[in-house]
Structure formats: structure tokens, C-alpha cells
């Protein structure tokens, strides 16, 4: 795939997912359609969706999970984690939170 077409496809996926998240409460059908189009672009052009865009899809049923409407986010206990539950299929998965090391904090300053 040409680099220009790849960049356009990734940009279009970002626009569609942002629009889907924004419209999730007011128009759920439109939000679901936008998310589906973003997934279709990803598969048609054989581009792996960036991580921050993949997080709005359920890992089990592949449905669109808008934060707060299609999913439930809970903070974990001792091992710091975020538990994300899909409201459609009930699948729960965890995202472990890590503490930033002092080295990375000094590099960022």
C-alpha cells in the first residue's frame, strides 16, 4: 500500500471514531455506523488500527463501546488496573496501569 493512502486511511479512521464517540449519546445508530465504517476501512486496506482507536471496540463481540454508554469502566484494587465491561456481551477485560519510572519523567522534562 502506498504511504499516502495509508496515511489517509488512518486519518479517516481517527475522524470516524472521534465522531462516533461524540455522537454516542445523542444518536447511537449513527455512532455505530461510524465505528463500523472505521473497522471496514481498517480491514479493507489491511491496516492495523492504532491502540487508542481499538480501545472503543469489545475484544469478544467486536461491537462499538462508547465510554459510559456501551461499556462500564471500573478502577481496580491492589494491582492497579482498569476493568472494562461490555454492556452487550458482558465480557470483562483488564488494562493494567503502570507507574511511570523516574527515568522517563526526567526525560520528558
Keywords, please?
Single alpha-helices involved in coiled-coils or other helix-helix interfaces; about 45% helix; alpha+beta; globular
Please give the number of β-strands: 3
The third-level CATH topology is Single alpha-helices involved in coiled-coils or other helix-helix interfaces
CATH class: Mainly Alpha
Radius of gyration: 16 Å
Order of strands, widest sheet: 1-2-3
Number of H/I helices: 4
- Overall mean confidence score, pLDDT: 87
Short description:
With 109 residues, the protein is of the alpha+beta class. 16% of the residues are buried.
Could you please describe the fold and organization of this structure?
By secondary structure, the chain is α+β, with helices and mostly antiparallel strands. The protein has one domain (3-98): Immunoglobulin FC, subunit C (Single alpha-helices involved in coiled-coils or other helix-helix interfaces). The protein is 44% helix and 15% strand. It has helices at 3-22, 28-44, 51-54, 102-108; strands at residues 71-75, 81-86, 92-96. Strands 1-2-3 form a three-stranded antiparallel β-sheet, with no helix packed on it. Strand 2 (81-86) and strand 3 form a beta hairpin.
